[in-house]
Write a structure and sequence with these properties.
121 residues, mainly alpha, two-stranded antiparallel ribbon, 4 helices, 2 strands
Length: 121
Amino acid sequence: MRKIPILGVLLCSTFIITTPVFAEPAESPIVQLITQMADTPADHKALAEYYRAKAESAREEIALHKSMKLSYSRRGNTKSKGVDFNSSMQKHCESLIASFETAASDYESLAKLHMQKGMHH
């Protein structure tokens, strides 16, 4: 039986876990609105609300991964075959936290931009 390196599994799981958070179904009306470009103040308000909701979802993911990181940090050293699982999982959580922090900030910026555009349209 062939062994799969744990780092490879962690990297793959990072991609699998983060991909759905940033993807929206193509059928979503908000995606249609984005692709058609917002023209009215109401369009911009709808987009601002959409981006604020995305930012909130990202902040929820931040809280989740901070909690998981703390849990792994309390378990101590669990080296097995030269790999410290808990340390690796903490690094995984740190990476996701940073990604979600960037996403939340970007979504908030987009929300503010659309609110401003809607007010000065």
